[in-house]
Amino acid sequence: MGLRLLACLFHLPTAVIYGSLSLFVSILHNVFLLYYVDTFVSVYKIDKLSFWIGETVFLIWNSLNDPLFGWLSDRVFLSTQQPGAEISSPEVILKRLRALSHNGPLFAISFLAFWVAWAHPGLQFLLCLCMYDSFLTMVDLHHNALLADLAVSAKDRTSLNFYCSLFSAIGSLSVFMSYAVWNKEDFFAFRIFCVVLATCSIVGFTLSTQLLRQRFEADGKAKWDQESTLKELYIEKLSVPQEKRITLAEYLQQLSRHRNFLWFVCMNLVQVFHCHFNSNFFPLFLEHLLSDQISVSTGSFLLGVSYIAPHLNNLYFLSLCRRCGVYAVVRGLFFLKLALSIVMLLAGPDQVYLLCIFIASNRVFTEGTCKLLNLVVTDLVDEDLVLNRRKQAASALLFGMVALVTKPGQTFAPLIGTWLLCAYTGYDIFQRNPLSNVVSAQPKLESAAALEPTLRQGCFYLLVFVPITCALLQLLSWSQFSLHGKRLQMVKAQRQSLTQGQASEVKTI
Predict the structure, then answer these.
(1) What SS3 class is residue 241?
(2) What pLDDT is recorded for position 250?
(3) CA atoms in the 13 A half-sphere facing the CB of 383
(4) CB neighbour list of residue 155: distance below 8 Å, 6 or more residues apart
(5) What is the Cα–Cα distance from 201 to 33, expressed in whole angstroms?
(6) What sign does the dihedral 489-492-496-498 (CA atoms) show?
(7) Using one digit for the tens of pLDDT, what is the confidence trace for 227-276?
(8) Contact assessment for residue 55 and residue 41, using Cβ atoms and an 8 Å cutoff
(9) Under a CB-based contact definition with an 8 Å cutoff, are residues 495 and 152 in contact?
C-alpha cells in the first residue's frame, strides 16, 4: 500500500505538485490572519503602545523585505554572461526549489512562535511578526517566481495557477476547523491544532519540493553531461568580453523605462488598497448595515464565503483567461465592479438581500482579481527579459519590486477608510476599539442613537463610492497597459526563442 502511494506521488503532474505548495502556506496563513491580533490583545494582554510600535515596524519591514530578498536571490541573473556560461532553466528552478525546501519548514516553525508566550508581549509581538513575514516573503517570492520559470505559454501558466487556487481553497478550510478549538480561556486545544497544522505544512513542503527537485535534477544532469562532452570536442572560441554586473541603481533605471511595469503597479496599488479596505471594513459594514436585518448565522456565512469563494471563483476566471486572455478578464472584472457599485448606489441601503449580495460579491471579485494578477507579473517578467536582453529572467526580483510599490496600499486602506468615515459622520473608530476600553468614557446613549442613522448612511456611501473610485482609476491605468494581444504573443515568442537559443547554442558549436 505504501509503495503504491509513493508511486502515485512520483507520477503526479508537475502542476499539481506546484499547486500543492499553496495548500501548505494557506492552512497556516489564514489562521494567522484571523487570530494573531486577538491572541496578543486578549490572551497575552499586550499594551496599546507596544502593539502600535510592533505594527509600525512590521509595516516598514513588510514593504522592504520583498525587493531586498528578490535582489539577493536574482541579482546574478541581471548580468549578461559569456556564451557557454549561461545559467540553464533547470538550474534556476532547482535554486528556487532549494530555497523553498529550506524556508517552507522555517515558515511553519515561525508560525508556532505566536501561540506560546516566551517573552514580554511587546517584544514577542515584534519579533514574531518580522520573523514570520520574512519566511513568508521568501516562500511567496520563490513560489511566484516558479510560475514564470516553469512555463512560458499562457495556457501552461493558467494551469499552474488553477491548481494554486484549488489548493488554496482547500487550505481555507483550516479557518472553519479552527472555530471548534478556539478558546481564549483554555488555549491548549488551539495550540495542539496549530502544531498539527505546522507539522502537515513541514511534511508537505519537504515532500513536494523533493519530488520537484528529483524531476529537474535529471534534466540538469543530462544538460551538464551534454555540455561536458561537447566541450571536449571544442577547439577554439572567439573571446567575448564579460559585461559588468548590473547594479541596483541601473536595474531601477531599467524599470523606470519599463512602461507596462509602471502602469501595472499603478493599477495594482489601487487593487491592493481595495482588497485590504474590504478586509478591514467587512465587519463594520456587517455591523452597521446588516446587524439588525440578518441573523448571526447569516453573518457568519457571509464571512466564511468571503474567505473560500475567491479561490473557487478563481477556477472559473482562469478558464476564462485561457479563452479570452488575462487582460480582457481583468478589464471585465473592473467593469463589473463599477456596474455593481452603481446599481447598489441607486438601490439604496434598505435593499437587504441586494446589500448582502453586494457586500459578499464585492470582496469575492476583488480578491479574485488579486489572484489573477500574478499571471500579469509573469508576462512582465518575460517582457523585462526581452527588453533588457537578459540571459535569464529575474522573476523573484520583479515580484519583489511589484510588492515594494503596491504594499503601501495595505497601510493606506485603514487610514483613508477611517478618515473618510470620521470626516463624513464624526465617528472615530478608535474610540470604540477594544484596546481603548479602559480609558473610554461612559456611553452616551442618546448621542449614540442620534449618530446611528448618519453612521449607517456613511458606511453605505463608503461601501459604494470606494469601489466606484477604484474601478475608474483602474480602468484608466489598465487602458494604458499594452502587454496583451499581438504584443504579448511577440514577447513570448522572443522569450521562447532566447530559451531555445541557450539550449541550441551548445549543440551548434
Answers:
(1) coil
(2) 83
(3) 23
(4) 322
(5) 17
(6) positive
(7) 444 444 444 444 444 555 677 788 888 888 999 999 999 999 999 999 88
(8) no
(9) yes
Which residue intervals of 172-258 are DSSP H helices? 173-178, 188-233, 248-256
Which grid coordinates are listed for 484?
496583451
Q: How far apart are CA 272 and CA 67, in angstroms?
A: 17
Q: Look up residue 402 and give its three cell numbers.
A: 511589484
Compute the C-alpha angle 51/279/329, nearest 5°: 140
479 CB contacts (<8 Å, ≥6 apart)?
none
Q: Residue 398 pLDDT more than 60?
A: yes
Residue 8 grid coordinates:
502515485
**DSSP conformation class of 426:** -
Q: Distance (Å, rounded) from C-alpha 271 to C-alpha 285?
A: 19
The single-letter code of the amino acid at 136 is L
The length of the chain is 509
94 CB neighbour count, 10 Å cutoff? 18
pLDDT per position as a tens digit, 108-150: 999 999 999 888 988 999 999 999 999 999 999 999 888 888 8
Q: What is the pLDDT of residue 411?
A: 73
**SS3 call for 437:** coil
Q: Which residues contact 487 (CB under 8 A, 6 or more apart)?
A: none
What 3-state DSSP class applies to 222?
helix
DSSP state of 340: H
How far apart, in whole angstroms, are the C-alpha atoms of residue 118 and residue 116?
Answer: 6
pLDDT, average across residues 296-323: 78
How many CA atoms are closer than 13 Å to the CA of 17, on its beta-carbon side?
22
Give the pLDDT confidence score for residue 282 in this predicted structure: 76
- 442's grid cell: 461612559
